[in-house]
Amino acid sequence: MRADVFTLFPQWFEWFRSQRHVQNALALGHTVDAFDFRTATPLKWGQVDDTPFGGGAGMVLRVDTMEAALRERYGEDPVALKSHRRVIALTPAGRLLDDALASELAAEEEITLLCGRYEGFDERILEHFVSDQVSIGRYVLAGGELAAMVVLDTMLRKLPGVLGDDESAVEESFSEALEGAPEYPHYTRPAEWRGWAVPDVLLSGHHARVDEWRRAQSRLRAERPLP
Ligand code: ADE
Questions:
Q1: Residue having the nearest C-alpha atom to atom 8 of ligand 1
Q2: Is residue 139 within 6 Å of ligand 1 at its C-beta?
Q3: 140 lines ligand 1 (CB under 6 A)
Q4: Which distant-in-sequence residues (6+ apart) come within 8 Å of 6 by Cβ?
Q5: Which of 57, 91, 116, 208 is most buried, by the most CB atoms less than 10 A from its CB?
Q6: Rounded CA separation 220/55 (Å)
Q7: Residue 74 pLDDT greater than 80, yes or no
C-alpha cells in the first residue's frame, strides 16, 4: 500500500509514522508520505485557500492550488488521476468509515488522502478531483488530519504482518469473521480479582467450547444496544 496524504500540517504525520504498527508497515515496504499543499502553489506566500464567494466565515481550499499540488506529485491531470487511483477527501458529510470500508481501502495498491482545514474544500475539488469522500463521524473536526490518521490506522492494521500476529485483525469487532458483530469479551490473568472471576469455559482448555462461547457472546452483543 502506498498512501499519500496532502495536508497543511505534514509534521503531524511524523508522530503517526513513528508508531510501532506504522513502523512495521513501513518496514514491510508500505509507504505513508505527507505532502504540504503549499509547496506547489503558484500563488504568493504559499497561499492555498481563500475567502468564500457569497461571504461567510472561514477559508476554503482553492481548486487551482489543489490542482497544482496533485499535478506536481503525480505529473498528470487530477481529473484523469482519480480514474485509476482512489483520491479521498476527508469530509464530515462523506461515506462513514466502517470495517468494510477499511478492508476495501486496505486492498488498494495506492491511495491519496486530502485533508481540508477551516471551511473545507472548494466544491469543484470534490466534484472533479476526488473519487471518494470519507467521514469518521458526524461531527466536525478542525481539519481532516486526525480523520486521515484514523483511516490510515484502520487500513494499515489489516495488512498482513503489520500487527505482528495476523490473526488479531481477522476476528475482531465488526469483521466478516464475526459476521459484523462486536467482538466477544477478553480476559487475562489473574483468573480472579476481588471476587470477579473469569468465565470457567475460558479456563477449560477446551477449544471448541471456547469458540462456541465466544461466538455466542459476540451474537449477544450484536443484539443488545451498545452502551
Ligand atoms: N474533517 C472535518 N471533520 C471531519 C470528519 N468528521 N470526518 C472526516 N473528515 C473531517
A1: 135
A2: yes
A3: yes
A4: 34, 35, 36, 37, 66, 69, 70, 73, 112, 113, 114, 115
A5: 116
A6: 52
A7: yes
Q: What is the CA(226)–ligand 1 centre distance, in A?
A: 23
Domains of the chain: 2-156 (3.40.1280.10), 171-223 (1.10.1270.20)
Q: How many angstroms separate the alpha carbon of residue 158 from the centre of ligand 1?
A: 22
Long-range CB pairs of 182-186 (<8 Å, 24+ gap) are: 182/218, 182/221, 182/222, 182/226, 183/218, 183/221, 184/213, 184/214, 184/215, 184/217, 184/218, 184/221, 185/217
Residue 177 predicted with pLDDT over 60: yes
* C-beta 70 within 6 A of ligand 1: no
Residue 166 confidence (pLDDT) above 60: no
pTM for this predicted structure: 0.93
